[in-house]
Design a protein that fits this description.
The protein is an alpha/beta fold and 261 residues long. Helices cover 41% and strands 17% of the residues. The longest helix is centred in the middle third of the chain and has 18 residues, at 114-131.
């Protein structure tokens, strides 16, 4: 099934990045969504990766009042030719669409199409700027090119599941970008991310799951879901020397501000 936290959130949580359209949630989604509300989850943003997943995310938004959608093409899901930007533009105008995403660069899985990835990233950042929407951005083993393109376009948005250095995070924050932090912060080998979490301003941190991936300790390797963010918030509070309630309040306000929720 799915792990249930033994900590009840003392304040309402926003999960700024999830994929509840994933097949691993088939057959359990209704009960799981009910459990989110019971455990203090206020809102969830489901991120599309292609047109099929966008449609599924939009349906989740229709069914569950606290689910919102980001529309975009993940670098692993790019078509052979150019993106249909006008179709994305039309989808972005729909009710409860709050961002363009998940977009960006991923050189871990593919390095033979770097130019196509960069073009798609730029095209979707232009769309986000045209529409006045934030971008939810992906960067895996592509830090240099990601930073160069963000410097070029100066979008508003978040770099989710941040894996770069403290210096990169500080430059992004200086450009107005939020840093997305999830379950990796609780891992024993998270030295670099702990350094980032301790250094950047609290008003530039978003909490996320990337559900069903990257469940935090003590549930690492199991099915991740939004209520487990409490463990990330607890670790962040420990790192920052803050009260848990304050960490949740600030990061929730950050998500509400960025996504106009």
């Amino acid at each position: 099934m799915y792990p249930v936290p033994d900590i009840i959130s003392p304040a309402e949580i926003i999960d700024s990045h999830a994929h509840y359209n994933d097949k691993r949630f088939d057959g359990i989604i209704d009960g799981l969504m009910k459990k989110q509300k019971e455990l203090g989850v206020k809102r969830i943003i489901n991120c599309g990766c292609d047109f099929e997943s966008i449609d599924a995310c939009l349906r989740l938004g229709e069914k569950y009042d606290f689910c919102y959608t980001a529309v975009g093409f993940h670098p692993e899901n790019l078509p052979e030719g150019d993106l249909d930007i006008e179709r994305l533009r039309a989808l972005a105008a729909l009710d409860k669409v709050c961002a363009i995403g998940e977009i960006g660069l991923d050189y871990y899985w593919r390095q033979d199409n770097k130019e196509a990835q960069k073009k798609a990233f730029r095209d979707q950042l232009r769309l986000a700027k045209d529409l006045g929407l934030p971008a939810i951005m992906h960067d895996r083993e592509a830090h240099g090119d990601t930073l160069d393109i963000i410097r070029e376009y100066r979008p508003k948005g978040v770099l989710h599941c941040f894996s770069g250095s403290r210096e990169m995070a500080e430059e992004l924050v200086g450009l107005g970008i939020y840093i997305g932090i999830g379950g990796v912060l609780t891992f024993k080998n998270a030295k670099k991310l702990i350094e980032v979490a301790a250094a950047i301003p609290m008003d530039k941190i978003l909490l996320e799951t990337d559900a069903p991936y990257l469940a935090p300790e003590p549930f690492r390797g199991k099915l991740n879901h939004s209520a487990l963010i409490i463990y990330v918030a607890e670790r962040l509070a420990e790192i920052r020397g803050m009260r848990l309630e304050e960490v949740i309040r600030i990061t929730t306000e950050n998500s509400e501000k960025l996504f106009s929720l």
